[in-house]
Amino acid sequence: MKKIKFIYATMLLVLALATNACDDYYSVTVNGDPGITPTVLITPEESITLPAKEAAGEIEIISNMDNSTISFHVPSDAERWCSVTLEGNRISLALEDNPRMIARSTILTIKVFSVTRKIEVVQEAKAAEPIYPIEKVYKFKIPSVENFDISKIYKVMDDKLKVAEICLEYLKNDHIASKAVVVYTGQGGAADYTRGLVAYLVDDDGNVSDIDKNGGTVAFNYNENTLDYVAGNSNAVQTVYLSAFGITTEEQENAVEVVAEPYLVADISGNSYPTVKIGSEVWLGTNLRTTKFGDGSEIPFSAMNSLNQQVASYTYPGGDSDVDASLYGYLYTSKVVADEDLLAGSIVDGLWRISTGGGNNSNGLMGNVTDWQRLFKYIGQDQLGTLLAPGYNWNNGGNGAFDINTVSDLTGLSIVPAGQIYSNGAFALGYLGQAFFFYGNAGQGYNLAERDGKAADQAGVRQWNHVTDACSIRLVRIDNHQ
After folding, report:
1. Looking at the domain assignment, is residue 268 inside a domain?
2. What InterPro entries does the annotation carry (predicted)?
3. Residue pLDDT, tens place only, 406-416
């Protein structure tokens, strides 16, 4: 019987020890009565915060107990990044780099004799890596819708550094088809269109959208010229802050206030042009009207009836000397575009080129290769009207598929019907009814809004050999973010 009691007592002792072992996380076991009441003070008292990069810290323990009675516990899930050592009455912390964009923490338990204290060990979040070559924090206001009558793009400058572009643009994908004012961070001569903040949406009548639809985000794919859009749910954004880490609406300390201004570019002749962003590309907002090449040499004028396609020259749309060149631009012979770089160099602000084109009924107009293809693809099938300025009789031609009721200029490209001078100056064709544009340097181009012509994918668009004609020109900016 005594043997059984002994075995039972031994089992209880083992069980008690095992239970204690589960509950006792500490390396030092202290038994007996110390004879005095233990007092423990740790510094810092409640928490210690260390940087995200590999960091070290120290906790001091002040007690009336011997240092040999001190022990500690680190939770197992923190052992991989938080190393703890004890020497005398000081605990040393060694933290690994925090690779995450959020802070992390653990609770360190310290035991002195029978007294425990807990302290939170916090490691800060990894700082976001700067993504833009901007050293300051900037604050600026968003222009109103009416301000964009001057140019569809505003720029924010700090001396010669472009801080931001603010664009009134047409957002188009499966989830949205609306004009909006979007803010992008400046990237040298261009801006980074892979991420933007929608300050506010704009309806067809120029009104700012309902309060719960603004503040979304956009991201353009440069290769595909496509848009990812995430809707917002805030009031219209009036002020933004911008730094090397991007754009935010949250107030930032020590922000430098700067003012947005219309983004206008000049040519070598002294003319000024608005700009417009469509998809991931920036176009001149009006037709070209330079009278000089990029090297400063003159482009001679020619009257319509004396036009010679063997000579580089310009003439008036419709042969009308009273035409408003700031609206309609000039018409140029194909010899003007023979040297693309020479003509594109006439724009002295930024890097530009003659808009490229191509495509026919067999391969279509909507693709990713040329500027016009990318433009047509972005606006969508048979949406020519989003490029054309309203208020004109665009129904020139027969009974084709183009519907003049679709003319809206939603994109802001504001193409006007400057027509062309046809067949070596024989007569003016399509003036105030159609638009004709060169693309590239081979005398090829497009006739826009010809109702009896329908290129593949685009009603009202016809590809045409313009080598003996005089046509309009639009340039495209080529210093976009890559």
Report:
1. no
2. Fib_succ_major
3. 999 999 999 99
Final residue in a domain of this structure, among 237, 262, 287: 262
Residue 214 covered by a domain? yes
**Cα(230)–Cα(197) distance, rounded to whole angstroms?**
10
Based on its alpha-carbon atoms, the radius of gyration of the chain, rounded to whole angstroms, reads 35
Q: Does 282 reside within a domain?
A: yes
pLDDT digits over 269-290, tens only?
Answer: 999 999 999 999 999 999 999 9
The DSSP secondary structure of 339-407, one letter per residue, reads SHHHHHTTB-SS-EEEPP----TTT-S-SSSSHHHHHHHHH-TT-GGGGBPSSS----SSS-S--GGG-
Our CA angle for 254, 260, 264, nearest 5°, is 150
Give CA–CA dist 117/214, Å, rounded: 50
Q: Are residues 441 and 299 in the same domain?
A: yes
Measure the CA–CA gap between 424 and 335, rounded to whole angstroms: 12
Kindly report the CATH number assigned to the domain that includes residue 31.
Answer: 2.60.40.10
End-to-end CA distance of the chain: 89
Q: Is 20 exposed, middle or buried (0-12, 13-18, 19+ CB in 10 A)?
A: exposed
- Provide, rounded to the nearest whole percent, the portion of the chain with pLDDT above 90: 70
* Higher pLDDT pick, 205 / 144: 144
For residues 180-198, give the mean pLDDT: 90
Residue 270 lies in a domain: no
Q: Indicate if 175 and 257 belong to the same structural domain.
A: yes
Q: How far apart are CA 61 and CA 372, in angstroms?
A: 73
What does 457-469 look like in DSSP terms, one character per residue? TEETEEEEE-TTS
- Residue 203: count other Cβ atoms within 10 Å of its Cβ: 12
The pLDDT tens digits for 213-239 are: 899 999 999 999 999 999 998 999 999
Indicate if 440 and 308 belong to the same structural domain: yes
pLDDT at 24: 47
